[in-house]
Specification:
Elements lengths: L3 E8 L1 H4 L7 H12 L1 E9 L3 H14 L2 E5 L10 H8 L4 E3 L1 H13 L6 H4 L3 E3 L3 E3 L8 E6 L2 E6 L3 H19 L4 E10 L3 H7 L1 H5 L5 E7 L3 E10 L2 H19 L3 E4 L4 H11 L4 E5 L5 H7 L8 E6 L3 H6 L5 H7 L4 H15 L3 E7 L14 E8 L2 E8 L4 H21 L2
Parallel strand pairs: 1-2, 1-3, 3-8, 13-14, 13-15
Antiparallel strand pairs: 4-5, 6-7, 7-8, 9-11, 9-12, 10-11, 15-16, 16-17
Organism: Reichenbachiella carrageenanivorans
Protein name: CinA-like protein
InterPro entries: CinA (IPR050101), CinA-like_C (IPR036653), CinA_C (IPR008136), CinA_KH (IPR041424), Competence-induced_CinA (IPR008135), MoaB/Mog-like_dom_sf (IPR036425), MoaB/Mog_dom (IPR001453)
Length: about 425
Amino acid sequence: MKEIYAEVLTIGDELLYGQILDTNTKWVSQELDDIGIKVRRKISIGDKKQEILEALDECLKRSDIVLITGGLGPTKDDITKKTLAEYFDMELALDPSALEDVEDIFKRFGKALTEINRQQAFLPEGCKKIKNERGTAPGMWFEQGRKVVVSMPGVPFEMEAMMAKTILPKLKKHYTLPVIVHKVIKTIGIGESWLAEEISSWEDALPDHLGLAYLPGKGQVRLRLTGVGESREEVETEMDQQINEVLPKIKSYVYGFGDIQIEDAVGELLKSQSLTISTAESCTGGFLAHRLTSVPGSSEYYLGSVVSYHNDIKKETLGVEEKTLEAYGAVSEETASEMAVGIRKKFKTDIGISTTGIAGPDGGTEEKPVGTVWLAISFGKNVFTRKIQLPGTRILNIEYTAIHALNFLRQTLEKP
């Protein structure tokens, strides 16, 4: 089956100046993907006629569909409609149906129709009007052979309604579309290049209609497998088989699939083992507690936290020995261990986990540079510890510490 490609063209000087965040392309791309249309390219340009003409010409050479947002307002700087009329060699003419729509909107607001807004009812004579139920600027549908160009307002809530009600259904009728299926494997604790080496033979053997993408994030890498075909059931079955084949190679790094977050996976492990947990935090300042409690239903296993930022709190609240702090310092395996044991005793939980480190940008030494962090988990009769060295800014070091702590907890809970 032939794949159908689209490009999204956003128009407006305000996008290039950074005055408005472009959320339209993300939303449009997701909706097109859902119906089986692949977005090949996204382009943002200013309100310049020649740039619009050149960009549109290039888009149509590469792709089947061009979706345009922006530049349809009533003011002189909105030139998209006139430019499209010129591109398709069409005259602008009053569209009675469009005029009725504009008049109806003004009546609803109890205002008289102005001449400048009346101009919005003038459309290129050869296009198909797309009703805008949330604004005054109608959309426009152009056809050039089997290729389609659609122009929509740049206001997101106007554009989204127009897409959902009219444009997406029309595209599904206009083209015979394949299905596009994505499946995501969530990995943690391994870098992108090392992960690629682990699964290189499997990746090389993937059939042409299945593609793999590596999507690295903070301490994590998502593996996105994309399949294209005529039957969703057949594509999903084949993809599941491929995933089952690769999982044994990377099992220790995989914590879930789809949209699951590491804190969700940890929560499921705690619930399945009927365990409770509490946190003692120094360098993370409560961020680990925030991640754990961001999961709905976390009160089932999470009891509480102590942010023991000052050494006095470590001693008085968590029971860290004065001699431990004097001999080893706050950032040490020994202090982290006593913090984890102390918080577990204080809240009478099955597990206590602690973080202590130097987030930066100051406070580091030659022996303990900025980014030095110790983690500890008190569980059963044991205390497990781990040292990590982080290279980031203060905020990144805090975030990465929480991620490492969650993964450390996952690995501990998954041990036999």
